[in-house]
Design a protein that fits this description.
- With 397 residues, the chain is α/β, with parallel strands linked by helices.
- The strands form five sheets. It has a five-stranded mixed β-sheet.
- It is globular, with a radius of gyration of 23 Å.
- The N terminus is likely disordered.
Length: 397
């Protein structure tokens, strides 16, 4: 559909056919197609031949040929030249067309919004940042978020066409698969419904996904900010192999965790896993915004507020050690604005607690602690992967 944005132009939203410059989603739902697309994605600019695709997927050459013909028709794949073979004629090499599809990643924090437009490889082609008041009410937040998405798409069109002029009518467009939205939990990922976000009880039960679908007219996926960030990290290759298990701890205006077990984001039976900040570690501790006492989040934020970073890191490390003991994870990654402002203090302090635990248990090595890469836009980029990752069969979005 077309939706007019401020300035009189229009951005074509949604996913169309090759003639409209978009991707054909029904053609992407096949498991075999996902296997082929993922190999094309990882091959990058050099590309990969049909024979190699058949060998690495286990599909027949005929099946690969049918899939790649359809992907070329849809504009997702193109020829990247020819490669010499050991016998017979040179092989035609195919590559993914990154700009054939895009996803918007939207991070709604308590006080600011970040939005990115990513191509099929996950590369950011445009980005925006704006102040946000999550307590301003659902209608205001949805409208503000939708305006930022529309402005982001108009910027994407301008970069794609090399012009900053208004885009009118049915002119050039950015083919968009949808919007991934990440924000503080708890929430119901499967239905896109928020629960009682700590400090913002008015959001309890709000159907954010459906509200944004109505406003934007395109698919929307909603998840916790920590889950989105963890998904992006799992797919970005910064955490080891495809079956890695790690915890991403996000300390900003609140505290939460994204858990990846065996290479997949662990959301739990009711999509409520990762409410890390509300572990009670001090029974008679200070009151937390969730209504309980002695939560890690309350203790951490209080220590940060009084400038005691060593204590904040010690509390965070205690929670990280609990996770390491429960899940036997390979790695702890730290992120969020508060961590980004003092990375050395938190990496050192959390690492010290995990190291002390390992020594008590007689373990030769402690669970390593690192600062998560790409922090400033990490959650927003992970939110875009909620749409992109399922296309490549890489992870559940």
């Amino acid at each position: 559909m077309n939706r007019t944005y401020a300035g009189g132009g229009a951005v074509r939203l949604g996913v169309g056919t090759a003639a409209a410059g978009g991707a054909n989603l029904p053609a992407l739902r096949s498991h075999n197609t996902a296997l082929v697309l993922d190999l094309l994605r990882t091959a990058g600019e050099p590309g990969i031949s049909r024979l190699e695709l058949a060998e690495r997927t286990g599909l027949t050459p005929q099946a690969v040929s049918k899939i790649t013909v359809r992907l070329r028709t849809d504009g997702l794949v193109t020829e990247a030249g020819r490669r010499a073979s050991t016998g017979g004629k040179p092989r035609t090499v195919l590559r993914l067309v990154p700009g054939a599809g895009h996803a918007v990643g939207l991070h709604l924090d308590r006080d600011e919004l970040r939005a990115v437009l990513c191509d099929l490889t996950g590369a950011v082609v445009a980005g925006r940042r704006a102040p946000l008041d999550l307590g301003a009410g659902a209608r205001a937040v949805v409208e503000g978020a939708a305006r930022e998405v529309e402005a982001l798409l108009s910027e994407g069109v301008a970069k794609r066409t090399g012009t900053s002029e208004d885009i009118a009518g049915a002119g050039p467009s950015v083919p968009v698969l949808g919007v991934g939205v990440a924000l503080p939990g708890p929430l119901d990922h499967s239905r896109g419904v928020l629960h009682r976000v700590t400090g913002f009880p008015e959001w309890d039960g709000f159907p954010l996904r459906d509200a944004l679908v109505r406003r934007l007219g395109m698919p929307v996926v909603v998840d916790k900010d920590t889950n989105a960030a963890a998904l992006g990290l799992a797919l970005g290759g910064a955490v080891g192999g495809a079956d890695a298990s790690f915890a991403y701890l996000h300390l900003g205006t609140g505290l939460g965790a994204g858990l990846v077990v065996g290479g997949a984001v662990h959301r739990g039976a009711r999509t409520g896993a990762g409410e890390f900040g509300h572990q009670v570690v001090q029974l008679d501790g200070p009151r937390c915004g969730c209504g309980d006492r002695g939560c890690i989040e309350a203790l951490c934020l209080a220590a940060v507020a009084r400038g005691d970073l060593a204590e904040a890191a010690r509390v965070l490390g205690t929670g990280a050690a609990n996770l390491a003991g429960l899940l036997d994870i390979d790695l702890v990654l730290l992120g969020g604005r508060t961590v980004a402002a003092h990375p050395d203090a938190f990496e050192r302090g959390v690492g010290a607690v995990l190291g002390a635990r390992a020594r008590r248990e007689g373990s030769a090595t402690a669970v390593p602690v690192r600062i998560a890469p790409g922090e400033a836009r990490g959650v927003a980029e992970g939110a875009a992967q909620l749409l992109l990752a399922p296309l490549f069969g890489r992870a559940e979005g």
